[in-house]
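Q: I'm building a small set of examples for a reading group on sequence design. Run inverse folding on the following structure and report the sequence directly after it, with nothing in between.
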């Protein structure tokens, strides 16, 4: 069972918490890699640098910042391959961010959508497909699906697409926290908004602007929105901590 693990900050960490997370993240990565659980993962750039892309009546609308206008934000991701949801929760609870903030788990709709190993050095941008849960008419949904398939064929032929997948509905999400040695699991995504992540794509574009261009071509941008984020090097984040 493959899961998208979203590293979520509900508040700014203290200097001491940042130091702990910076120190403990590498042992967590080493452990999950040695166990064959970790497919790939990387921290995201500051949410203020995000671009949210919508297309309305043929016009591309780009706004600064993430799709959800809240103090909470997504700070990174991992793709993990576990034997069960219970093991995924155990892996998430061991992540040092879960000790102070939260980890959201979303199962992939199709385990074969992403390979078992992805070189994190290839990752330059992440597209977060953000939807509000409002379904269109069946004929429209069918056309969106066909258009998404055509978009994926085009971007894969470009050489910048690394991996991507749809995730299970927000109602099936689990948000994991670790407090005082106890694992706390709540149902649903960590963001309490009508919008939620419905899928993702990992890109290796030369610039954020190039990735924004691909987001504007995404059929979902005509109905919902696509958040575009650059990745950061994990070593830089650790050094700052």
């Amino acid at each position: 069972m493959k899961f998208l693990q979203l590293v979520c900050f509900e508040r700014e960490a203290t200097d001491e918490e940042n130091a702990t997370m910076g120190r403990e993240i590498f042992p967590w990565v080493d452990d999950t890699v040695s166990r064959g659980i970790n497919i790939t993962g990387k921290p995201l750039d500051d949410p203020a640098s995000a671009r949210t892309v919508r297309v309305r009546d043929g016009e591309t609308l780009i706004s600064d910042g993430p799709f959800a206008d809240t103090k909470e934000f997504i700070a990174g991701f991992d793709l993990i391959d576990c034997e069960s949801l219970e093991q995924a929760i155990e892996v998430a609870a061991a992540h040092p961010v879960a000790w102070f903030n939260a980890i959201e788990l979303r199962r992939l709709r199709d385990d074969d959508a992403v390979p078992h190993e992805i070189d994190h050095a290839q990752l330059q941008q992440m597209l977060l497909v953000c939807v509000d849960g409002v379904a269109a008419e069946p004929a429209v949904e069918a056309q969106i699906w066909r258009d998404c398939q055509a978009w994926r064929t085009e971007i894969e032929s470009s050489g910048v697409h690394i991996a991507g997948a749809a995730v299970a509905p927000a109602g099936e999400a689990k948000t994991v926290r670790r407090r005082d040695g106890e694992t706390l699991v709540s149902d649903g995504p960590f963001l309490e908004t009508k919008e939620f992540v419905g899928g993702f794509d990992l890109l290796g574009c030369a610039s954020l602007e190039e990735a924004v261009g691909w987001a504007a071509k995404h059929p979902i941008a005509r109905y919902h929105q696509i958040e575009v984020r650059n990745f950061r090097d994990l070593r830089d984040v650790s050094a700052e901590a």
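The radius of gyration is 17 Å.
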